[in-house]
Structures are given as structure tokens and as C-alpha cells.
Amino acid sequence: MNPHIQHLDSLSPFTKALQNLATQNNTRSLQSYAHQGIFVRDTHNQLLINLASNDYLGLQTLWQDTIATFLQNASKDIAYLSASSSRLLSGDFPIFSQLESYIANLYGKDCLLFNSGYHANVGMIQSLAKLGKVLFVLDEYVHASVFDGISLARAHFKRFAHNDIQALQKLVTHYHNDYDMLIIVAEGLYSMDGDFAPLHELVHIKKCYENVYIYLDEAHSIGVCGDDGLGKAKELHLSQEIDFLILTFGKAISSVGACVVCHSQIKQYCINTARSLIYSTALPPINVAFSLQVFTALAQLAPYRTHLRALSTELISNLNTQRYEVLGQAHILGIVVGSNERALALAAHLRKYGIFAPAIRYPSVPKDTARVRICLNAALQFSHIHQLLESLHKAEI
Asked: Is 76 a catalytic residue?
């Protein structure tokens, strides 16, 4: 008998928990995929159009030669696959400050790198919560990492209905006098509903109070929004009004890591208090160097963004004529079907037609709003959009 499973009875709480998830059609498992451009190949050797990738500019496909050249020509001072230390010890390679300085110049503020968007949100929320009486006012659909930061910090928080400005205004009006800082937390583009935050309205509320700040996560809009690809706040000329701007590199930037764009004093404060920065081995220098290369090229990638918007427009306009409830204003779309069972069935149907678009279920989305999420990227062609539409038309869900 396998020694790893001979004491299965002692794991009965885990067994019961998994059985409970199974009855709700809510179990998850890891599956390996070989990546081939815009396709993935599963363990059954089926080739599928990958509509689950966050590589929104398609750089892993469209930039294959550029990436190969970058790796071949990487200088010895960046050709490290690990920093092997925290930045506060020996892991602070010169390339880190070069990337921070470049991003800082783009936004006219300062910049501090983190290992991922998750690290950034958890570390920033925990640090900000230490500043006295702080209230976080969260859009209910902000990323799970924000809520984890709130939980770890035992911070005071209130939630408001997604993109409901009136509900937000009531909370700010009611609580702003009770706290030293009131921090509104939103996202430039929401990862599940695919809609944009009402940034003009958020900034208007902020300007009415001296102690109100805005924390904006642009994980899904950096690289994609704006003529220069610098995100939704920059596109709307509002970036100077954002006090804590989170940029993630693992999506459209096609790398790894994240940063917060903020004022210099805030950066220095976080260097001293952000536990996810202080106690983590720093990013691999070669990835930091690649992130810098992408940021220096963002303005020249406007044709990629134009093509991505055209693909999104084509898909949205055609989906609106079908029977599905569709959420999304840009390159992230949710086809809402309600139950977990129906979402899994629709994902399985699309897979038969060569399309990989997984079911998204609770707790990633609210209960009874399970959906198939479509993530477009600039390496796709209109023929792939039409293949998806034809597949959806044939679904009996």
C-alpha cells in the first residue's frame, strides 16, 4: 500500500470538505498544458485556442523573436535566475532601480517594485493600515489579495456595491470624520465583470475631503489602455490624483512582478513596513530587465492595442445578438449562465470545438453568477472570434 495514503481515515475532515465541494460542482484541479503561441495542448493531445491567458498584448506569441534575442544578449549583470536574497539584504541588483526610475518618470511620481500583484496588494494594505485610524472603503469586486491584506492587518473596512457611486458617497460622507485616512479601493478594469471603474467620479469624491485617498489596481488595464499603454488612469489624465497605483507585470507586460506608483515618502515608508517586500527573496533580475524592455516599448505597441480593441468590439457586438448574458466592456468578457453545472457544461462544449475558456465559479464570482470568462489577446485573429461565436451558437446550455 502506498504509505502516503494508508492513513486516509485520519484525513476525513479533508475528505468531507472535498465531497462538499463536489456536490456543489465546485472542485478545482491542476492541469498541465503545453503552450504553443495562441494555443495550448492538453494531456489528451487536444489543441485548443487559449482564451484564458492574461497575456493581453500577445507578447509571448508576437514577440517570440524579440524574447529570444533578449535572452541571448542578456548581459552578465542581469543574467540571474534568482536574486537569492531580499532587496534589503543583497538582492537589490541595479536593474531594480533602473526599472523603478523608468516607471517613475512615466508617471511623474516614485515607484516601488513588488514580487507580484498579490504581494503588492497584501503588503501595501498591511502597511497603510498601520498609519493610525484608517478605513478602507472597497468596491465589492476588488481582487481577493486586497481582502487578504485587510484580513491580515485586521483593518477597518466597508464595502460598497460594485461601481455604485451613490453607495460610495454615503459611506465617505458618514465615516470620513471618524478616521485619519479613508482609502477608496477600486480597479481600473475589473477581472471578472470586465468593466471599468468610474474614475472621474472617484476623483471628484476624493477632492471633496482632505483625508480621502484613492488606491487603484490597474492589473488588467496596464499595457492595454491609453495610447501609450499606461493604464486607465493615465488615459483619462487622472494618474496624478491616484495616491496608490498598483501595476502588475504578469499580464499584458508578459513578465513577472508588480509595483506601486506613489509619492517618494510613501515609497520610503513601505520599504520599512511592507512585510511582503521585506521578507521575500527579490524578483529574478532577468525578469526585471525584461519588464523594463517592455515598458520602454509600450508606446510603440499601439497597433497591438488597436487590434485588441477591434477584436473586443467584434466579439461584444455579436454576442449581444445571441441569447447569453454578457458582461464586459473590453478584452475581458463574462458569459454568465448562473449555476456551476451550466458553466462547466458550457466550458466543456467549447472545448469540443477547440476552445479553452474555463468556467469561473464561486468564490471567484458571486454565487449563482457562474460564467465562462473570455480573455482576448492581440495575437488572435478575427477567424478565432468567429470560431468562438459559432461554437456558442451551437451550445445547448
From this structure: no
